[in-house]
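Sample entry (263 residues):
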Amino acid sequence: MKLSFSTLGCPDWSLRYAVEQAKTLGFQAVEIRGIGDSLRSDTIEELLPENRAASLQFAKENGIGFCCLGASASFHEADKRRENREEALATVKLAAACGIPYVRVFGNDLVTDDEDTEIGEIAGQIRTLCEEARDDSVTVLLEVHGDFNTSDRVLKTADCVNCDNFGIIWDVQHSREDPVRFWERTKHLIRHVHIKDSIRTKLCPVGEGELPVASIVRMLENDGYDGYYSLEWEKRWHPELRDAAEEFPSFVKFMNEIRNDQS
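Predicted structure, serialized as tokens:
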């Protein structure tokens, strides 16, 4: 069982401090989604060309990987697709330079009644990005988010993209389907899993909400999932949430209890 956390949960931490805390708390990797005031990965000071080698070496010395770079890019707004594609491509190039295997993007919203046409257009944008990323050995992951929240839509998108370096991030809070059915239909695409919990739509500590997080993790473990379970504690967007210093070790404890139950 491999654990990571998204830096959404610790927006006031430097990348170096995030690495130190990952090691201390028992994580194996960090998922980068903004550091400080820099949301675009290619503007993060510690990943700029002049600082990159030192940051990567520091992470290596501490036994911590960087498992995913989160781009903000979403492809549902036709008039913004060029800028979103440019951001996503810059993120791909950075991932390649850092040896990070995955870049996250969004499909996001379906805004017309012609769902198939919209999915085809969005998938076309993602396919172009996948083709550009192939030479960099980077896989593009569509996050289960917004209207891309059912296995039908995910599978339809994957069929349209039709690239071997395409996959999905299963955000367990955002999917709108029985988890067993979603897993069985899409597990060949799932490369990374975002873990969070909620009561109705309000985020809460993992294990204290309404989502069957423990049963989902057990299902994946029993079926041989070997990717990361990444805590997406959205404190950057919800500052009222408790501090990472409380939630991160709580998550590790929760996940270790599941692992111990399995053994």
